[in-house]
Automatic annotation (TrEMBL):
PANTHER family: BCL2 INTERACTING MEDIATOR OF CELL DEATH, MEIOSIS INHIBITOR PROTEIN 1
SUPFAM superfamilies documented for this protein: ARM repeat
Lineage, uppermost ranks: Eukaryota, Metazoa, Chordata, Craniata, Vertebrata
Annotated signal sequence range: none
Protein name per the record: Meiosis inhibitor protein 1
Length: 1273
């Protein structure tokens, strides 16, 4: 009391406020323990006396309640400790508060009472308080004559059940008759009471136990009342509470069935124009959808979704008949993400009902879906993106083909752009849904609105594959952190696999679309393109894009993923894509098949079959693998690169074989090899499987996919062939071709076939009409046939013929290649050369091929032989080739008789080879009897030709010329005698020489060169050896001189050949009994001064000299040598008959001009053999006006100062002759220089002859055989 008095007597701030919380009349009696120790300083005892006191104002009571509520919220533990001191006081306080709640009409006070009661009940957690409160509520509702004042009680019950869910079960079990009062409140014409009842019902039905106990109540009484209440609700509070109760009810399948059955009954009642009956839930929800309140729209969509979740097939028709999809589609244009998402979810479930499509709701709403997706993809709401794309995918997938979804190409294009944007989303879940929608979008009926937008489809597929590639390149966390990390890695790989599978399914649908459009003329190209315009955006372009995309993206993606995991479903889709591409791009199927085979796809497919398709497992994958292998094998066999084309019968047989055998193969490589090696009796079906396995190995190996051991395969194929022989079977040609090829490529260098296998192979081959039927072009196969004598003797010729006919290169770049810097041989040719070196007798077969094969093939063989002979000079095969060639030539002459030139075939090629072999011979080699026979036969052949038969005559003349100049003098004499005995050859040469100056009908310049050189050689040999002449030949001297005075353009070699002929005639003083130089036509009598020069005249001599000067000015080395040699012979001839004329010719002023023209080629230009020989000639004939004594001295001085060691033997010889000639003429003025030069020459000349390799004397210039020594010396 002292404290109370002190407090009362001591005024303080806020004292009036605390006083209002105390009941002054009674507070002094209260124990201090009922006073709150924290502000607000409220006394619980005072509150118990103050609140029920009628004399206390309602405002004060409200203030006390508000403060107590605040204390409960701020200091719950302190207040609860105070209240719980005495349970009786606690229950009394609750009863007092409930009484206040029931007796006060002020809404704010009742709300405070309810709030305090709920807080006290929940904080105390005492069963007695809950039972007390429930009993009070029950009594109040039972004693209430009308539901007018029940709002506060109902509200309290609803919030109590919401706060303590377990109260729902107690309320239903212990106060079950209370439900009747709730029904009364539901029909009471006050929407506030109805809203409270619905709220309480919603909380009761949220408990599964209470809901089960109230199921009968709902079925018998509540259901119709609730539906009518929902239908008639006007206030938002009632509408929201009704929808809340409905959401709770729709969680249970039983209540859904009850409500929907009532709805169906109501709709049927309305349809027969009877009196209004039951209320239809779809119509009520449709009404709420039409409201402008977004909350009600969302709640209505949620309720529809809640119904459909239980059974779309059962309940969707009611909503569809109510046209609810139409309004849901309209809501997709809303700006509310929640409403759009709710509409998406609802439409996804409605799309499971076919009626949704047959009533054309999708045709009506597809534009709204596309526009909604366009807008939603700009929002940052992943769930919205996913559900929108899921709805789009469902519509695209389930839309009936007969009802076109996109009515215009514009709308289809908009959908395409949406999908392009969606598949590029950085969120994987969104991109995955977009890929599924893309897969459904790629359907013929969705794309058939003309024109088909192939360019847009291509962009969509590119975006999809690009996203797939980006995802596959995301690095995986492979750190070994235990089982959890391993599971995460497996999940990541699985996620990648699923995404890739969806992308491949979409790509497969694109391929299927291309196949289907192939039969649609209107889909081939844009029908609105002008006829003259360039055709773009066509099916053909799209098809080629599919092939390119598969090659550059799909295949690498799948191969990269298969390194981490292999999924049968994914591989099934992948292989079906590859299969369809054979149909989509038929003109590329062979090339595509070859690329697949070279990329180990035969091995990949067989491994898939072995891993997943054993027994009856994964039958679909087995079928796809077998079908893919079948078409790839047929494509490879239909357009082979290394074998001849198969006949239609062979293809049909292989097709049937592969169709039946491939599905039965599901073994790995070693198992297949063991099966192939089985030597026991093999029955028909097993044999067919062996054939299939062998073909697969063959096609894989031929495309460098060697996925089984070569040594084991080599043994297996041998066993297979012996098994066939044992059972007396003849394999199909394709199978036997595969067997031989595999044996050839798998045979090790050190291993060899058993004789039994070789014998079996020969027996099989002898039963085949032609070797080309089983030939495969490969170097190892050629080696295989040539390695075994038993096979080479019988089939060597044909296999080499096939080899060269299949060689793509003509080898022209190897022909006539210089010995230095030889080009690298192709691998196939290097292999052949290796075989030829080990077995030179094969050259005879090649020689036969040159004679008997088609010209193109023979040309290849000739070049190969030429190249081999050039690069393998150590291989002595000349005698072998010449002997065989002699037989061929004899046979030819007998066969063709008098006209071998007619249809000469490959004879020129043989003769060309013979010339090459002759060129390889060492010089100064005796001619044996075979060589003499060849000379005889070749000369005989030439005699039967016409001058125009250059293809035969040119190599023949080359051979004859080289034979004469590449042997010893004794052999030369014998050879010349043989050749001179051929009168036909001499007559031919006479005709050809006469054609040199003919205006028409002249043979080629090269052939004329050979004819002049050969004639000069014959004349020289006959004159030197006094050989018998059987036929002379006449040459018009005037024409010879004219040809030298007026030479043909670009015919230096021809001029050199004629000069060689004229030089020979001059050296013989025109006394040859073989060659008669006759005048042209009727000539006037020679002048007296010309008699001594006969048959030349002075004018002819001068004309010839001028011609020689002109030819020398051309500075052609070979021609210069020929001119100087001819000039030497001319001056010798003139000097023998008229020394004065010879001196006059040698001293012509033009000779000096000529000499200085030749010397105008740079420093030490005089150190050239032809110039040295020319100066020697002028010195010899004392032509000081041409070359003075001082100039001779300068030449010698220059020679003494020059580096003579760098000069060739020919130049040194010419310099030595010049020095000796000067010395003999006494023109050495400077004796010291002369001695120095002489010492150098005497020291250097012998050593140079030994040190320097001799220059090649025999050359082929422009196809003409030339001996440099014959022209020069």
């Amino acid at each position: 009391m002292a404290v109370r008095k002190a407090m009362a007597g001591a005024p303080r701030p806020g004292g009036d406020e605390e006083a209002a919380l105390l009941f002054e009349r009674a507070h002094y009696r209260h124990d201090p323990r009922w006073l709150l120790p924290v502000p607000p300083r409220l006394c619980l005892a005072c509150a118990l006396e103050l609140l029920p006191e009628p004399s206390v104002s309602l405002v004060r009571k409200k203030h006390v309640l508000s403060c107590f509520r605040d204390a409960l919220m701020r200091h719950a533990s302190v207040v609860m400790q105070l209240v719980a001191q005495d349970q009786r006081v606690c229950i009394h306080f609750i009863c007092m508060l409930f009484g206040l709640l029931c007796n006060v009409e002020d809404g704010s006070v009742t709300d405070l009472c309810i709030e305090v009661l709920i807080q006290l009940t929940t904080q105390l957690k005492l069963e007695q308080t809950v039972h007390c409160l429930l009993d009070e509520c029950h009594k109040e509702l039972c004693n209430m004559p009308s539901m007018r004042g029940s709002l506060s009680t109902l509200t309290l019950l609803g919030k109590l059940v919401d706060a303590i869910p377990a109260v729902a079960d107690k309320l239903v079990m212990e106060h079950g008759n209370l439900m009747e009062h709730l029904l009364r409140g539901l029909v009471y014409p006050n929407e506030g009471v109805q809203a409270s009842v619905c709220y309480l019902y919603g909380k009761l039905y949220s408990s599964p136990m209470a809901a089960e106990m109230l199921s009968g109540h709902f079925r018998e009484k509540l259901c119709p009342l609730f539906l009518s209440t929902l239908a008639g609700a006007q206030t938002k509070e009632l509408q929201i509470n009704c929808l809340g109760l409905l959401r709770q009810l729709l969680k249970y399948d039983l209540f859904v069935s009850m409500i929907m059955n009532k709805s169906v009954l109501a709709e049927s009642t309305e349809s027969i124009d009877g009196p209004p009956g039951e209320t239809s839930l779809p119509l009520v929800l449709k009404k709420l959808l039409l409201s402008r309140d977004e909350t009600l729209q969302v709640a209505s969509a949620h309720c529809i979704t809640a119904v459909l979740v239980h059974s779309p097939a059962k309940h969707a028709p009611a909503f569809i008949h109510a046209d609810i999809p139409e309004f849901l589609f309209e809501h997709l244009s809303s700006s509310s993400e929640v409403l759009i998402l709710s509409s998406y979810n609802c439409l996804i479930l409605l799309a499971e009902e076919p009626l949704f499509f047959s009533k054309c709701h999708t045709v009506y709403g597809i534009e709204s879906v596309v526009r909604s997706l366009q807008g939603s993809l700009r929002m940052n709401n992943t769930e919205l993106h996913k559900q929108g794309l899921l709805l789009f995918a469902e519509i695209l997938t389930r839309q009936p083909e007969e009802i076109k979804l996109f009515t215009s190409s514009t709308m289809c294009g908009d959908a395409n752009h949406v999908l392009q944007e969606a598949v590029s989303s950085p969120v994987l879940e969104v991109a995955a849904e977009a890929v599924k929608a893309t897969s459904a979008f790629l359907r013929k009926d969705h794309q058939s609105a003309p024109p088909v937008q192939y360019r847009e489809l291509r962009a969509l597929l590119e975006a999809m594959l690009s996203r797939c590639a980006d995802f596959s390149q995301t690095p995986l966390n492979r750190r070994p952190l235990g089982h959890a990390s391993s599971r995460d890695l497996e999940k990541a790989i699985l996620r990648r696999g699923k995404f890739l599978l969806s992308a491949l399914e979409a790509f497969r649908n694109a391929c299927r679309l291309a196949v289907e459009f192939q039969s649609e003329p209107s889909a081939q190209e844009n029908p609105f393109t002008a006829p003259s315009a360039k055709k773009e955006d066509t099916l053909e372009d799209f098809s080629e894009f599919l092939l390119s995309a598969c090659d550059s993206l799909c295949i690498p993606l799948v191969m990269r993923h298969s390194e981490e995991a292999t999924h049968p479903a994914l591989m099934e889709v992948f292989l079906s894509i590859l299969h369809s591409l054979f149909v989509i791009v038929p003109h590329m199927k062979e090339k595509f098949s070859k690329k697949l085979a070279a990329s180990s796809f035969i091995q990949l497919t067989l491994e898939l079959k072995a891993r997943f398709c054993s027994g009856m497992s994964h039958s679909a994958l087995n079928q796809v693998c077998s079908s893919f292998l079948y078409y790839m094998c047929i494509n490879l066999l239909s357009a082979p690169e290394k074998i001849g084309p198969l006949s239609q019968e062979e293809l049909s047989a292989m097709s049937e074989l592969l169709q039946h055998g491939l599905p039965q193969i599901s073994s790995r490589g070693p198992e297949s090899l063991a099966f192939l090696s089985d030597r026991q009796y093999v029955e028909g079906a097993a044999r067919q499987r062996q054939y299939c396995i062998l073909l697969l190995f063959y096609l894989a190996y031929i495309h460098e996919d060697r996925f089984v051991s070569e040594a084991e395969l080599f043994v297996a194929v041998q066993s297979f062939l012996l098994s066939l022989q044992d059972q007396g079977e003849q394999p199909p040609l394709v199978v036997f071709r595969a067997s031989i090829y595999l044996l050839a490529v798998c045979q090790d260098k050190d291993s060899a076939l058993d004789e039994a296998v070789v014998s079996a192979i020969r027996k099989f081959l002898e039963g085949i009409a032609d070797l080309h039927l089983v030939y495969t072009h490969h170097p190892l196969l050629l080696r295989f046939f040539l390695l075994y004598p038993e096979l080479m003797s019988r089939f060597g010729h044909r296999v080499l013929e096939l080899w060269f006919s299949w060689e793509e290169s003509s080898y022209e770049e190897l022909d006539d290649a210089p010995s230095a810097g030889q080009p690298t041989l192709p691998a196939s040719l290097a292999a052949l050369f290796h075989i030829l070196r080990s077995s030179p007798s094969i050259l005879l077969i090649l020689l036969d091929l040159i004679y008997s094969s088609p010209v193109d093939t023979a040309r290849k063989v000739l070049i190969v032989l030429r190249t081999f002979l050039r690069r393998n000079e150590d291989v002595q095969v000349g005698g072998l080739i010449r002997g065989h060639f002699l037989l061929i030539l004899q046979h030819l002459l007998v066969e063709r008789g008098a006209s071998p030139s007619g249809d000469s075939g490959n004879l020129p090629l043989l003769l060309s080879l013979l010339s090459l072999v002759q060129l390889r011979n060492e010089s100064e080699q005796e001619l044996d009897s075979m060589a003499m026979k060849l000379l005889h036969q070749v000369s005989k052949l030439c005699g039967k030709c016409n001058p125009i038969d250059a293809d035969i005559l040119q190599p023949s003349f080359n051979f004859l010329y080289w034979s004469l100049h590449q042997t010893t003098p004794a052999s030369q004499k014998r050879a010349a005698a043989v050749l001179l005995s051929s009168t036909a050859l001499i007559k031919l040469l006479e005709k050809m020489l006469a054609l040199t100056w003919a205006e028409a009908g002249s043979p080629g310049t090269a052939l004329l060169c050979s004819a002049w050189l050969l004639t000069a050689s014959f004349s020289a040999q006959q004159h030197n050896g006094s050989l018998q002449v059987h036929q002379t030949l006449s040459v018009e001297l005037d024409q010879v001189l004219k040809a030298l005075s007026f030479p043909k353009k670009k015919a230096a070699l021809l001029s050199a050949a004629i000069l060689r002929f004229l030089r020979t005639a001059l050296q013989q003083s025109f006394s040859s009994i073989l060659v008669a130089l006759v005048p042209s036509g009727t000539q006037p009598p020679p002048a007296p001064e010309d008699t001594v020069l006969a048959p030349l005249g002075t004018s002819q001599v001068l004309s010839l000299v001028i011609g020689l000067q002109n030819l020398l000015v051309q500075k052609d080395p070979l021609l210069s040598h020929a001119c100087v040699g001819c000039l030497e012979a001319l001056l010798d001839y003139l000097h023998a008959r008229s020394p004065d004329v010879a001196l006059h010719v040698a001293s012509q002023p033009w000779n000096r001009f000529l000499l200085f023209t030749l010397l105008d080629a740079g420093e030490n230009s005089f150190l050239r053999p032809e110039i040295l020989r020319l100066m020697t000639l002028f010195v010899r004939f004392r032509s000081s006006s041409v070359l003075s004594h001082d100039e001779v001295g300068h030449v010698l001085q220059g020679a003494a100062l020059a580096d003579l060691s760098a000069l060739s033997n020919t130049t040194l010889q010419a310099l030595r002759d010049f020095f000796l000639q000067v010395q003999s003429m006494g023109l050495l003025a400077d004796h010291s220089t002369a001695e120095t030069l002489q010492a150098s020459l005497e020291d250097l000349f012998p050593r140079a002859s030994l040190a320097q390799p001799p220059l090649q004397d025999m050359l082929c210039l422009g196809g003409v055989a030339v001996s440099l020594s014959h022209i020069r010396d």
